[in-house]
Write a structure and sequence with these properties.
Largest sheet of chain A: 5 strands, parallel
Strand content of chain B: 5-15%
Order of helices and strands of chain A: EEHHHHHEEEHEHEHEHEHE
Distance between the termini of chain B: 49 Å
CATH topology of chain B: TIM Barrel
Oligomer: heterodimer
Helix content of chain B: 40-55%
CATH superfamily of chain B: Aldolase class I
CATH topology of chain A: Aldehyde Dehydrogenase, Chain A, domain 1
Largest interface: A-B, 12 and 9 residues
Strand order of the largest sheet of chain B: 7-6-5-4-3-2-1-8
CATH class of chain B: Alpha Beta
Number of strands of chain A: 10
Structural class of chain B: alpha/beta
Strand order of the largest sheet of chain A: 7-6-5-8-9
Number of helices of chain B: 15
Number of strands of chain B: 8
Number of domains of chain B: 1
Distance between the termini of chain A: 84 Å
Shape of chain B: globular
Structural class of chain A: alpha/beta
CATH superfamily of chain A: Aldehyde Dehydrogenase, Chain A, domain 1
Radius of gyration of chain A: 20 Å
Radius of gyration of chain B: 20 Å
Strand content of chain A: 15-25%
Mean pLDDT of chain A: 94
Chain lengths: ~290, ~350
């Protein structure tokens, strides 16, 4: 006897909740061969606005947790990813058309990148910060601080981009204590939404990661010009008019990372962490010891 | 017991106060606890489900572009910019006044707010900071309506003090130049059924709002709906305040957990509308506390226009008591004018 299939509804992830798009729109996600996979919410500019509000609200708490604790929270995500590896492999096979071996390798890579970045959480400040020599009886310290709300146009192409690329773009921004609004792969958003289910059940506070699915072309200009977004990662915006996005971002003095292409996009590096930090330098008198 | 309606405080031969006169007409006899109770408790009960549904349906209107731009400007013109903290300092009041005068320094077309609302002892600071823009001076100089100074009085927010102390509180604020007095009713007396005492107090405070030059400070009566608990009580307290001569009825102090809601404001607007139909007099309504977003405020505008009428959407008949609302309205205004979303970095931190 055949059983009625129960297809999953993929929704947005904003402020720790899974709302449908404010606009009520959805679009069909198809496999690499063109077969129907699922309906995903098509985010509008107002969903982007709500996501920025949620990210802003979550910023203080996330930036305020200790670096060690942030590292543990990020590591915990890797643990949960490991537990759901079958689901992620299956989604990569269905949505990107990878062989199961290659999909497994991609999931491994994604988990390893989480662990790699989690390790940096309580170390990057030692590398990027400094005790500066000054001509006086003062300590002069430079420490990196999070930039704030980072909007990310997630990778849209490349093998495993919907998971590996997504993780590679989101994780480094989180390490320093930023909160993110990320536009997932338009063609293959399933992994990103499944990952947000992982985030929702991990120790990451709601609003720290906000995931929008839909058209980057439609959403990116609103994020680029949004005055409450502090930085813009255009890693997956290669197909858009990204120069104009940079121009829009400059209006409100955002930090911007340029698009990257191919399998090596958003390769793990300390630079991706430092790109979304501000250096604060403070003076302290030396005690009379 | 017959209530002293304050007539004795005026020169011999003066007519009884307006409040007493209108109450006498309605109450069918002298103003006493008994006649007030008979009247107020004879008012039909509120259909709570219907009221909330009506309020919810008024909140679903979609207001777009040009209407929204007009609504936002009107909201600013209707705001009583408020600071009522124990930690208020003269400096804080001066920056509040600066914001009232120039809400958005990046946009000269932004209108001014209606009033600033402070504690009584800070009224002189506000008056001095407003200078020539203080409402009476501005009007005298033909320089528009200016910005009024509202003071909370009568042992705000609890109202737990003797009559003498409350009246002295009011007289002090009026003498210092307050144009509007926000008084609290004695909720304890109201809930205990001593309507006469509440009535008498409003009448006495109204009397204390008179200035020697014949003008008087406008009287806003705060019902503190969160402590009245039921819609029926809110309706009764609204009628009682209007009967006693309130120029405005105001929902709440902002100091208790339950503040202005759309249904409660709708209910008070209905009282005001009925009073206008009955007597031709216009009483204002001021929701206060808990209105933080432009979206909420626009719902209130719709409710006012649909209930009392559009002519109520003027500073002398409708006000928002708010502090954080203004920033949200300014952000929405900036969004409409610039075409992109604005952020908290572009308005003041208050």
């Amino acid at each position: 006897m055949s059983r009625l299939a129960v297809p999953k509804t993929y929704k947005l992830y904003i402020g720790g909740k899974f709302p449908r798009s404010e606009s009520g729109r959805s679009y069909e996600v198809v496999s690499a061969e063109g077969a129907f996979l699922a309906n995903a919410a098509q985010a509008s500019r107002k969903d982007a606005r709500d996501a920025v509000v949620a990210a802003r609200a979550a910023g203080k708490g996330w930036a305020g947790t200790t670096a060690y604790n942030r590292g543990q929270v990020l590591y915990r995500i890797a643990e949960l990813l490991e537990g759901r590896r079958v689901q992620f492999v299956d989604e990569l096979v269905r949505s990107e058309g990878l062989t199961s071996e290659r999909a497994e390798a991609a999931v491994d890579l994604a988990i390893d990148r989480w662990v790699w970045y989690a390790g940096w959480a309580d170390k990057y400040a030692q590398v990027l910060g400094n005790g500066n020599p000054v001509a006086g009886p003062y300590f002069n310290l430079s420490v990196p601080e999070p930039t704030g709300v980072v909007a990310i146009i997630g990778p849209q192409t490349g093998e495993g981009h919907s998971l590996v690329g997504f993780v590679s773009a989101v994780a480094p921004a989180l390490v320093a204590g930023n909160t993110v609004v990320v536009v997932a792969s338009e063609k293959a958003p399933l992994s990103a939404i499944s990952l947000s289910e992982v985030l929702a059940t991990s120790d990451v506070p709601g609003g720290v990661v906000n995931v929008l699915t839909g058209s980057p072309q439609e959403i990116a200009p609103w994020l680029a010009s949004h005055a409450d977004v502090n930085a813009l990662d255009l890693v997956g915006a290669g197909a858009l008019d990204w120069v104009q996005l940079q121009v829009d971002a400059a209006e409100t003095l955002k930090r911007v990372l340029a698009p990257e292409d191919g399998v090596g996009a958003a390769a793990p590096s300390l630079d991706r962490i430092s790109a979304f930090t501000e250096t604060k330098t403070v003076w302290h008198t030396k005690g009379l010891l | 017991m017959t209530i002293d309606t304050g007539a004795g405080a005026r020169p011999a031969g003066a007519a009884p106060s307006a409040g007493a006169a209108r109450a006498l007409d309605l109450l069918d006899g002298p103003v006493t606890d008994t006649t007030l109770r008979r009247y107020l408790e004879g008012i039909p009960g509120v259909d709570a489900v219907g009221l909330e549904q009506r309020a919810a349906s008024l909140g679903t209107r979609s207001i777009k572009t040009t209407s929204k731009a007009m609504a936002l400007d009107r909201i600013i013109e209707l705001v009583d910019l408020t600071t009522l903290e124990g930690a208020d300092t003269p400096g804080k009041v001066r920056s509040l006044v600066a914001k009232a005068i120039t809400p958005d320094p990046s946009d000269p077309s932004c209108p001014r707010v209606a009033a600033v609302c402070v504690y009584g002892d800070l009224v002189p600071v506000a008056v001095e900071a407003l200078g020539s823009l203080h409402a009476p001076k501005a009007r005298a100089a033909g320089n528009g309506e200016g910005i009024a100074v509202a003071a909370v009085a009568t042992a705000f927010p609890s109202g737990r003090a003797s009559r003498e102390v409350k009246l002295a509180d009011v007289a002090d604020a009026v003498r210092n130049g307050a144009d509007e007095i926000d008084m609290v009713i004695d909720r304890g007396a109201f809930l205990a059924g001593r309507y006469g005492q509440v009535f008498e107090e409003i009448v006495a405070v109204k009397e204390a709002c008179r200035r020697p030059d014949g003008n008087d400070a406008h009287l806003k009566v705060i019902l503190e709906v969160g402590e009245l608990v039921t819609y029926d009580n809110v309706r009764r307290a609204s009628w009682l305040s209007v009967l006693a001569g309130a120029d405005f009825i105001k929902t709440s102090t902002g100091k208790v957990t339950s503040n202005a809601t759309l249904p409660v404001t709708l209910l008070m607007l209905e009282v005001v509308r009925d009073w206008h139909r009955m007597t031709g007099e216009k009483v204002g309504v001021k929701p206060a506390g808990g209105i933080r977003t432009s979206k909420d405020a626009i719902k209130y505008l719709v409710t006012v226009a649909e209930t009392a009428g559009e002519e109520w959407l003027q500073p002398h008949l409708f006000r928002f008591g708010a502090s954080s609302l203004l920033n949200d309205v300014l952000l929405q205004r900036q969004k409409l004018h610039s075409g992109h979303y604005s952020g908290a970095d572009y308005v003041t931190i208050d």
